[in-house]
């Protein structure tokens, strides 16, 4: 390894070492280029995420026939991956058509092979996401859905921990507390939905339940953070090409999952299109769009902004449904969102930033965070 | 008014003007003298407060005969004031006996008259506290006890606002958020005790209820902050002498209240010793000790530390009763105290301090706060 260039021991090609300190030179260059284009993208990401997350419950409701789903949930995952692959191909073709003269051709076989080799890391998050789809079902056997939702909130802290380890991100104490408050705020809002009796800390405390919870929380968090790492470490590769690999791997892993189900449950479960309607197609399109938006979050922003964005979306949905359907806002909801807003302000506030120990100036990263802070203040 | 010295328009005596910017020169001198004695006092205040607040519910329980009180609650207030006056006199005599040669004599009539004149402001908090004792009863007619408790939490924010206006204290945004979190944390813990149905924001929303709430929250907050102001502005006067005036005024106002009750309800309510037992005497002694401790908080620390101290005391009581009587800790309690601890850390953390705009250094005040931060970290 010399000057950050590493030789592959198998194919002897020269690779830029994704050294942990600087994720990628191209990404670092990008970090210092703060344009209005970036700001516009951030606004688009958060607003887009809010709209898509907001439509989700409506589409889920419309997809039900007589109060239940007629299709296999596993097929939804596979069809979502296929939709995302399809979208990535279309976008890639559009991007290739608009390439300027002199740019490296996007669709040449050599570009593709080189990118595929460099982005092989994307198989890791794809596998983790596929595993996560199965874990969700297993968790529901151990805990009731409200408890599963509550335990999911722990992901915020695990994601921050993984960002620290994998992406070498530094958080100030106030920012750690802000993340704990985000977790607490969402939990307060969910407290009322816990079944009677479980408000006492009477969670099942068997060793097995602890281990399942740990896996259930760590796998999707690791998937998101590793996805961010993989996308940013090959910053020069087109995001549509990266998406094509990510979703391609995803489709393969989900297909293997379906094959596994066929082996266990018999060939009837192979009929992946069974029970689908126009509404379920919209649901799949929405899922796919959320997945694609996530890639943009991970590559151009980060996993924490994605988490806050989803939380704001949930809050807007809650307020909108209260206004549209005349629900009363519960005390838990009002207290919960107050905590979330304080958390958000503290996390993105320039006051709570980690100062660079060497020279006492704010890190480049902070300039981005300040933008996001302004952006979120603007949205609220 | 010259050099901060003001002439009284009635008696023409020279008074040190309690200019708003510096509450008192003696207090400012005191602020810069940070001794281990001060630290020891802070520890004593918080620990003492925790013990007294912890005993309160036990004494209240012991004071009940067949599940109800046999004595008039108004008499408790009056007897508490009398106890405090008695304590102040005893302490004053003890202090006078230990005076060194050359010190200004504590018990001379001229000292007393001069101090009484300078500390006439203490009549204001004494009147406000007396009014507050009656307001508590009125509030219970409008709201159920759990709602009254919940509304009481708003005092934290009103106190901070009044400290800003009256004491010119500056809080950073993070500190304001910390205070909001303290309010939220206590509320989350109390949510479960709200009667079924009121978890929806279904508080009575009549104009009258709003006005009563505003008065109910503002009067005791103003009493505490004005008390802090009055005690600190005459920093040179012995605290026992100041207490004597404060509780003397208190006893007078409470006695007037009892006279008023006699006029309205007839002479039977004049028998202030009726229905008391050894347990109620202990309860009164506890109330008196809490009152005296408050004076020390207000003069040597501040109202916010007192609020945090009471909250920590409530938390310890909750944990102790769970350990002693085998209660399960509820999810609300665990989430609530997590929020309170984060709030406490953020409020006293040196990170969240208001920086002096002139020269970028921490204010003297902050050195005190840092001490308190260390103290509280030590206690938890």
Assembly category: homodimer
Q: Given the C-alpha coordinates, what overall shape of chain A results? A: globular
| C-alpha end-to-end distance of chain A | 48 Å
Assign the structural class of chain A, choosing from mainly alpha, mainly beta, alpha/beta, alpha+beta, or little secondary structure.
mainly alpha
**Number of helical stretches of at least 4 residues of chain A:** 14
Strand order of the largest sheet of chain A: 1-2
Question: Care to describe what's here?
Answer:
- The structure is a homodimer of 380-residue chains.
- The first copy, chain A, is an all-alpha fold.
- The first copy, chain A, has one domain.
- Chain A is built from 14 helices and 2 strands, in the order E-E-H-H-H-H-H-H-H-H-H-H-H-H-H-H.
- A two-stranded antiparallel ribbon of chain A has the order 1-2.
- Residues 14-20, 197-202 and 356-367 of chain A have low confidence and may be disordered.
- At the A-B interface, helix 8 and helix 13 of A face helix 8 and helix 13 of B.
Structure at a glance:
Chains A, B: This is CMP-sialic acid transporter 3 isoform J. Chains A, B: GO terms for molecular function: pyrimidine nucleotide-sugar transmembrane transporter activity. The structure is a homodimer of 380-residue chains. The longest helix of chain A has 28 residues, at 36-63.
């Amino acid at each position: 390894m010399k000057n950050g260039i590493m030789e592959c021991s198998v194919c002897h090609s020269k690779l830029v070492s994704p050294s942990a300190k600087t994720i990628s030179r191209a990404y670092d260059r990008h970090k210092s280029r703060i344009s209005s284009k970036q700001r516009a993208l951030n606004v688009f990401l958060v607003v887009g995420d809010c709209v898509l997350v907001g439509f989700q419950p409506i589409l889920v409701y419309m997809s039900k026939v007589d109060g239940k789903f007629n299709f296999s949930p596993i097929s939804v995952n596979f069809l979502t991956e296929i939709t995302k692959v399809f979208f990535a191909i279309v976008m890639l073709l559009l991007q290739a058509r608009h390439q300027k003269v002199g740019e490296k051709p996007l669709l040449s076989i050599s570009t593709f092979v080189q990118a595929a080799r460099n982005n092989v890391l994307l198989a890791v998050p794809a596998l983790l996401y596929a595993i996560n789809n199965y874990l969700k079902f297993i968790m529901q056997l151990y805990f009731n859905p409200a408890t599963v939702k509550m335990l999911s909130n722990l992901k915020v802290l695990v994601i921050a921990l993984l960002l620290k380890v994998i992406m070498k991100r530094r958080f100030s104490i106030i920012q750690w507390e802000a993340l704990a408050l985000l977790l607490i705020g969402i939990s307060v809002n969910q407290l009322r939905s816990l079944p009677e009796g479980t408000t006492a800390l009477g969670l099942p405390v068997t060793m097995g339940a602890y281990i399942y919870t740990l896996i259930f929380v760590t796998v999707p968090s690791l998937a998101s953070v590793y996805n961010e790492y993989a996308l940013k470490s090959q910053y020069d590769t087109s995001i549509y090409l990266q998406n094509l690999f990510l979703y391609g791997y995803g489709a393969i892993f989900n297909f293997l999952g379906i094959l596994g189900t066929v082996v266990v449950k018999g060939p009837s479960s192979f009929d992946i299109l069974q029970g689908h309607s126009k509404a379920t197609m919209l649901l799949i399109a929405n899922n796919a769009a959320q997945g694609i938006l996530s890639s943009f979050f991970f590559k151009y922003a980060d996993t924490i902004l994605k988490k806050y964005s989803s939380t704001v979306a949930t809050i807007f949905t809650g307020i909108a449904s209260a206004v549209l359907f005349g629900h009363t806002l519960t005390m838990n909801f009002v207290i919960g969102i107050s905590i979330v807003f304080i958390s958000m302000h503290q996390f993105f506030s320039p006051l709570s930033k980690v100062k660079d120990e060497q020279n006492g100036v704010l890190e480049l990263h902070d300039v981005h965070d300040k933008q996001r802070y302004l952006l979120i203040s603007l949205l609220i």
